[in-house]
Design a protein that fits this description.
Length: about 270
């Protein structure tokens, strides 16, 4: 990240357009964070299948019996199914068949340029096929889940647990550009590139816009740690405001990924699921 910051700082002095293009490529090609051995061991206990989606081979994972009710797990940007490993056994004990997958260009799925709407589209296809009673999403996966649940208004979901959530896409862009010290002219060009790629204004891509229209979920629970250094808790608080009847649970001393393996989250899942 330090080398990228230095490179972009120099490049935008020469050409903000070239710097914006490099930023766009960076944001369209998620980094792969290597799973730990015990996370891979949990994936190895699953039934693995490969699903073809556009130009991608999508890796999916299933635990449990065919006859069980379904829990669907949706990871975040630069995340993967293995991040949810700590929740598999608690969900199986509650009688769920658990289904997860690695999104396009994530985890063990094939790689290539991707965007938010690719992520939503593959979720849509899974939702229609498996009809989950419970959805558990993490980080940017909560935004993806909200868009897909809204798209699938014909389906009914009993519970949705958001384990952290961003609030809007513009805020994500600002966080990345602040980290890399990107100038306003370069950011403006980057925003136009993203909007052209998505075919929609980024100002429409926010959780308030999605969540206030969702009517097909019985119970929504938002879980976030006040010590999350990657995604500040204020973003989930904004989402909580958008969902009038949602429950907000604020934890302490847990990081952005550590929360997924915490005893506190397992207890919440046991209570709600």
């Amino acid at each position: 990240m330090f080398l990228l910051k230095g490179y972009l700082s120099l490049l935008q002095l020469i050409s903000p357009k070239l710097a914006a293009k490099q930023m766009f490529n960076f944001m369209s090609n998620p980094r792969i964070i290597k799973l730990r051995d015990f996370e891979n061991e949990i994936l190895d206990r699953s039934k693995k299948e490969t699903v073809r989606f556009k130009s991608f081979d999508i890796q999916s994972y299933t635990w449990g019996d065919e006859s069980d009710k379904v829990a669907m797990l949706i990871h975040g940007w630069e995340g993967q199914a293995g991040n949810f490993g700590g929740l598999i056994d608690p969900l199986l004990a509650k009688g769920y068949r658990v289904i997860a997958f690695d999104a396009p260009s994530h985890g063990y799925s094939s790689k290539g340029k991707t965007n938010m709407f690719d992520f939503v589209e593959i979720i849509d296809s899974f939702m229609v096929k498996i009809k989950p009673e419970l959805v558990i999403s993490h980080s940017f996966g909560s935004v993806i889940a909200s868009a897909s649940i809204l798209n699938q208004s014909q389906l009914h979901f009993k519970n949705w647990i958001m384990v952290t959530s961003p609030h809007d896409f513009r805020e994500r862009i600002q966080d990345v550009t602040d980290t890399l010290s990107i100038s306003k002219p370069t950011v403006d060009i980057l925003v136009r590139m993203i909007e052209e790629d998505l075919g929609e204004s980024i100002d429409n891509l926010n959780m308030t816009n999605y969540c206030k229209r969702i009517k097909n979920v019985d119970q929504v629970t938002i879980v976030h740690s006040i010590h999350d250094k990657i995604l500040p808790i204020r973003t989930s608080r904004k989402v909580h405001e958008a969902f009038e009847e949602s429950e907000m649970i604020e934890l302490e001393n847990l990081g952005h990924y550590k929360i997924l393996w915490s005893d506190e989250l397992k207890e919440i899942v046991n209570r709600i699921a």
